[in-house]
Amino acid sequence: MFRVTIILILLSVYTEQASGGSIFLYNQVRHGILMKVHCKSKDNDMGWHVRKYGGNYGFDFKDHILDKTLYWCNVWSGPTFSRNASFVAYEGKQYKNRSNWIRWSIRGDGIYESIDGATPWKFKYHWFGTPL
User: Fold this and answer.
1) Which N-terminal stretch is annotated as signal sequence (predicted)?
2) What is the mean pLDDT of residues 24-28?
3) Strands across the sheet with 35-40, in order?
4) Which of 47, 64, 91, 124 has the smallest number of CB atoms closer than 10 Å to its CB?
């Protein structure tokens, strides 16, 4: 019985301290160009989404208390989705604040990151595939 009590206490502490975060991807490639997105973690597949220029895709998540949360995204753009990139969209141990709002700007020259909307856009990833 004592072990069960300890497990329940630890479980309640874990769930109480699990903070949430958000990831948003903005299609800023070029007018008329679609963006296809597929994001996932070890436990969650967020599905496939297509957004037109100016559109965005976002989702919320709970951050693991031991900084084990990892989401990666694959994006495609271009008339035939010939440009692509795969990148780490969120890794818990990289960010000090557990309730981060991570924004990704998908542009013609690459992928940019801004944290909580307070930091300026920073170039992070190049495209693979053929140019637009």
Assistant:
1) 1-20
2) 97
3) 45-51, 35-40, 70-77, 83-91, 128-129
4) 47
